[in-house]
């Protein structure tokens, strides 16, 4: 099966994650606190998109890269998994920690942790877009 459709989906999800991250940053940088409903809406869309995206990478992209037979690609895929495989667990911990009540009680802590999380996510997206995805697309895995 060609990887093209999955790569288009992964790239579209990167664009969506970038947009949602920017929206969340705007919400936490406004002088007045946003409503919990507005914040939860953006966090929910970010959560759903990120988890769906990571599953697609873990179940489709990385196994295909590792099975490509290209030693450099196999090493690169392994490095990406080792370097950034913790994002799902980090996000799950963040998501469990920052309930609506906790956000209300510690707005500055929530904002700080959100900025760190989004920075890590943004770096991963950039590295995948620049380094990993072009390699996967060139392989035209079947």
What features would you describe in this structure?
The protein has 142 residues and is mainly alpha-helical. Helices cover 85% and strands 0% of the residues. The protein has 6 helices and no strands. The longest helix has 33 residues, at 107-139. The protein starts with a helix and ends with a helix. The relative contact order is 0.17. The mean pLDDT is 91.
Summarize the entry for a quick read.
This protein has 142 residues and is mostly helical.
Please report the distance between the alpha carbons of the first and last residues: 5 Å
> Which ranges are low-confidence, i.e. pLDDT below 50, for 5 or more consecutive residues?
none
Largest sheet: none
Q: Order of helices and strands, N to C?
A: HHHHHH
Rounded mean pLDDT score: 91
Question: What fraction of residues sit in β-strands?
Answer: under 5%
Assembly state (oligomeric): single chain
Name the features.
elongated, single chain, mainly alpha, 142 residues
How would you summarize the topology of this molecule?
Elements: H1 4-29, H2 36-66, H3 71-84, H4 87-97, H5 100-105, H6 107-139
Helix pairs in contact: 1-2, 1-6, 3-6, 4-6
């Amino acid at each position: 099966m060609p990887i093209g459709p999955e790569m288009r989906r992964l790239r579209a999800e990167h664009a969506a994650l970038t947009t949602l991250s920017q929206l969340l940053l705007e919400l936490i940088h406004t002088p007045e606190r946003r409503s919990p409903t507005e914040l939860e809406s953006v966090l929910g869309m970010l959560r759903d998109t990120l988890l769906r995206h990571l599953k697609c990478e873990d179940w489709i992209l990385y196994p295909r890269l590792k099975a490509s037979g290209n030693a450099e690609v196999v090493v690169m895929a392994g490095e990406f998994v080792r370097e950034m495989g913790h994002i799902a667990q980090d996000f799950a911990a963040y998501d469990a920690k920052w309930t609506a009540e906790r956000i209300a009680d510690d707005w500055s802590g929530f904002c700080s942790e959100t900025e760190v999380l989004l920075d890590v996510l943004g770096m991963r997206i950039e590295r995948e877009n620049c380094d990993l995805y072009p390699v996967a697309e060139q392989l035209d895995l079947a």
